[in-house]
């Protein structure tokens, strides 16, 4: 998600009366700092953004928030919830707005000009945040409210604890010297994170494989060829075909290309991102990040960065996270050996004369799928129309949560490809959903959700604005875009984050929507994936792009029968990344060569040589482009274990995945409450017990005992 300051409360009106008139006039003249106006409670003025405005906008926004914080910290009245905690929730609206614009430009419209500004801004914003988090007068007021929190409502108690805990974890109780060092570390890390991300974006942008002959296209389905032709034409290579250095372009090529030499070339280019020994190499940056994180953790009183990160997560300790990962790992790599044996048998039967290598895995896995399950995923793809699946997401959200999606055209967007829908429930406005589905230069790879404005209601209702972003390659005008089954699952997953935000019904923005612990935030989105394969969605929205006929039940049955296919690859690819992430951050202050560490630790884990980590260390943006998922990539496994336990409960209910009672319980205990209650408490209330890992193991086809 885009960078936003810790204290920002989107949509709230900042109390800026202490600002000089000149500053207020400057705010009025800069579209980035201006209060959002227009329909739906106000919307971002994306049509008025100029890159040159970002630096002055952030300068003014930081001054504005500083004035607000100083007013709270220096208040003469005794601290109470309203004049301290609620006042903090009301502060920061300007920097929140500017941060929204910066997040969109940095992730989807990045240019050399903007990247220069990013590098300059990152340490400034870090210093600004630290100035607040280390403000002694402010912390004393927060602590006073925290110590008297028994008189507050449960939600107010939760919010007060959240502020107190974050300030303590940021170093509010440290000596002045230690505070200064922590602040310096944070600023240096901010700069390193930006450099890491920009290096990765450069490798994804600069490395393109152009195909020029029919023989180089051998095996590629027509839709993959068409997308590659469009990508080439957009880059000035009309008449050629481009394989981009992104996952959405790499995966179909490795799955279908008959040219083993080109598969190896594409594979090596993709998995060497950030690891080419050139100006964009990330290994040195990673070494610095790891050292700084360890030093900061020690200053804050924790044995390692991993212990610091997990202290307020659902898992609580690295040991708990490692225990779950290592329970699954042996079954995953054992399944990989079985999968490789099947693939090797096919290669031998075809007299290919090869040993299965990582660039062969997807290609031969498809041959196994066809042989074992009589299923060719190319049979599925004609029914996977991007826009029809979007309609299916809307329909399922309507059935489960009562949402209605209405397209709107009165809202400015950052790029012509972006479309907007108003979300209603019971005829009442619930929020806005922006959809940005296509790849383009300057847009980072992958798929994600953003919140442009967080829901709140303590000073009157403020509705949420969310977006989903993807990187599908545009086809020819008027031709439906066909996506893979895996991409369809990803769409439903990311939409689940948006649905989590749209269901939010809390009072305070810092507790709103997806503002939950990292190992819990993926839980609602992983549940949402499981409405895709339901008969109700497939029969209505998995329609053939030429005939309009629904996907045949026989094909759906094949898909279901193959549901545990290639789980060895999928789980091992992911889990190896999660394990290396945790091991890197449990290594303390050791001198680490990232490439060597990755290689040696994977060998200790008996990592199969036929595949690699989903995110090799030099390109591990989840972990090194921010602190976000650092020592936290295990969160996907933790959350999926919760999600599959809930999905199992849905499937056992009378109404299946559309059971009204289960849907209401999920809404009331998870989707609507944000972080206003402890996630563990919400989960136990929903399920009547703690999580049962057996549903996860059954779903993957792994031994349950």
From TrEMBL:
Textual note on the cofactor: Binds 1 zinc ion.
Keyword field: Carboxypeptidase, Hydrolase, Metal-binding, Metalloprotease, Protease, Signal, Zinc
Entry EC no(s): 3.4.15.5
Principal EC category: hydrolase
Pfam families named among the record's database cross-references: Peptidase_M3
Gene3D superfamilies per record: Collagenase (Catalytic Domain), Neurolysin, domain 3
Signal peptide extent: 1-27
An example Gene Ontology molecular-function term: peptidyl-dipeptidase activity
The organism's place on the tree of life at top rank: Bacteria
Domain Peptidase M3A/M3B catalytic: start-end pairs: 253-700
Coiled-coil ranges (or none): none
Cofactors demanded by this protein: Zn(2+)
Stated family: Belongs to the peptidase M3 family.
PANTHER family with a match to the protein in the record: DIPEPTIDYL CARBOXYPEPTIDASE
Protein name listed in UniProt: Peptidyl-dipeptidase Dcp
Organism: Phenylobacterium koreense
Lineage: Bacteria, Pseudomonadati, Pseudomonadota, Alphaproteobacteria, Caulobacterales
